[in-house]
Amino acid sequence: MEIVGYSMALLVGLSLGMIGGGGSILAVPILAYMFTLDEKVATAYSLFIVGSAALIGGLRQHKNSNVDWRTAIVFGIPAIIGVWLVRHFVVPTLPDILFTISGFEFTRRMGMFGLFAILLFWAAFSMLFSKEIQGGSGEVNYNYPLILAEGLIVGAITGFVGAGGGFLIIPALVVLANLDIKKAIGTSLIIIAIKSLLGFFLSDALTMHIDWQFLIIFTSIVLIGIFFGVHFGKFVDGKKLKKGFGYFILVMAVFIFTMEFLVK
Question: pTM for this structure?
Answer without folding.
Answer: 0.88
